[in-house]
Amino acid sequence: MPKTSRATADARPLATAEELATYLGIPLGTVYAWRHRGQGPTAIKVGRHLRYRWAEVDAWLDGQSADTAA
Predict the structure, then answer these.
(1) 12: confidence class by pLDDT, cuts 50, 70, 90
(2) If pLDDT is split at 50, 70 and 90, which confidence band does 22 have?
(3) Cα separation of 1 and 17, whole Å?
(4) H helices of the chain, where?
(5) How many helices (H) does the chain have, and how many strands (E)?
(6) How far apart are CA 10 and CA 5, in angstroms?
(7) Which helix (H) or strand (E) holds 21?
(8) Which of 24, 51, 65, 70 is 20 to 30 A from 14 via CA?
(9) Residue 9 is inside which H or E element, if any?
(10) Alpha-carbon distance 29 to 22, whole Å?
């Protein structure tokens, strides 16, 4: 069976910090603060730019679900 790389598994372009902030409905400064504190979705450095894989953003969001029974 052929190996599938991440690039072919999710062909969507990487998200910028601005796109992530818009998608989540939060200020851009929050995205940068998360990065500084090691929180939020995993960022990738491409040169001097931060980029985010949409699949990892969605996985991170799934992990943020609040348990209302607690």
Answers:
(1) confident
(2) very high
(3) 36
(4) 6-9, 17-24, 28-37, 54-63
(5) 4, 3
(6) 9
(7) helix 17-24
(8) 65
(9) helix 6-9
(10) 12
